[in-house]
Structure formats: structure tokens, C-alpha cells
């Protein structure tokens, strides 16, 4: 799937993240762990921010100037309704250029929708968008080798891909980041969380 097709799928299900059945605690413990690595509270970015606003709320509560980025028009419409004071970027992360360096970047359950050949450049872009000492948290598929798949698990056509843990670790080093924490946070599912810091 192309990124614009992934966005169309998310447009159709954007409201799911605002319903009472959505677990707003998902990923919050990992974000709090990541936030503990940096004392600075400047600009922060939520890549693939979606419509729930839970990560943006956490960043605001921590004193950050928070921004969101998403490719889905409907996700952003809902996000702007709940956070009209914030800056949102409607863009494909593959083509987007960061307007400033960030002290904190979250890409929770979002980078894995990027086409596999584009993932190395996107990951390096996020690393290089950090201030010195800035922190990046993101999720990926916890497998050894690159994989990609297309399914309808969420009720709409959806693409997922991962570079594999060894390749991701090498890219973090190439991007000038040190791996601070690695976790199989949904074991036995192959869902892993990386926390990296710009050196």
C-alpha cells in the first residue's frame, strides 16, 4: 500500500481512538520511561499522532510545546477539535522536513506503516531531528529480519512493515543515537518499543 492508501484506511476508522473502548493507557508507561531520560522540556513531536490525543496530553502535562503530525485528514480533524491550540502537520513523514529540532519525538505505532524501502531514511530523519540529548520513542515489529504484510485486521486494508531489530539498532547508531531501552512490551506478540537518545 502507498502512504496515501494507508491514510484513506485510517480516515475510515479515525473515531475508534476516541471511543470509550479505547485503552488510553496504551504506551503511556513506556513514554514516561522515555521522558525520564531528558530534563529538557522544549519542543516535542508526536508522529502519527492520530485522534486520541493521549500522547499530546502527556507531553503538554510535562511542559513541552507539543506538535502533531499525521497523514490522515480525518485523524487530524478530530485531533484539532480536541487540541485547537496546537500545531498540526498534515504530511507524509517520508517527505516531511522537520521545521525545528525537538527535545522529544514519539512515533508510537506509526513508523511501521511507512513503506519498507523508506523506513531507513525515515528513522534517520527522526534521529537527526532531535536536539543533543533529545529522546526518540517508537515501536516496531520485534523480528530478526525485514518483513512486510498487508491485512485487514483493523477492519480496513492496512500495511505493516519492519526492518528487524538488528537493522533498526544499526540505524540508531548511524543516526547518532544511543539505545537507552528496548522492550517486548506486548509479549508474546512481536511488538517492541525502542527508546533512543541523541548523543
Q: Show unreliable segments.
A: none
How many structural domains does the protein architecture include? 1
Q: Looking at the structure, what is the overall shape?
A: globular
**Annotation, overall tally of beta strands:** 9
Q: Decide which structural class fits the backbone.
A: alpha/beta
Strand content: 25-35%
**Strand numbers in spatial order across the main sheet:** 3-2-1-4-5-9-8
Tell me the span between the first and last alpha carbons: 35 Å
- The CATH class: Alpha Beta
CATH topology: the name is Rossmann fold
Q: Give the mean pLDDT.
A: 95
User: What is the CATH architecture annotation?
Assistant: 3-Layer(aba) Sandwich
Tell me the helix content: 25-40%
Number of helices: 6
Sketch the major β-sheet: 7 strands, mixed
Order of helices and strands: HHEHEHEEHEEEHEE
What would your notes on this structure say?
There is one protein chain. This protein is an alpha/beta fold and 199 residues long. It has one domain: Vaccinia Virus protein VP39 (Rossmann fold). It has 6 helices and 9 strands, in the order ααβαβαββαβββαββ. The protein has a 7-stranded mixed beta sheet, with helices on both faces. A two-stranded antiparallel ribbon has the order 6-7. Strand 4 (102-107), helix 5 (119-128) and strand 5 (130-141) form a beta-alpha-beta unit. Helix 5 (119-128) crosses helix 6 (165-174). The chain is globular, with a radius of gyration of 15 Å. The chain starts with a helix and ends with a strand.
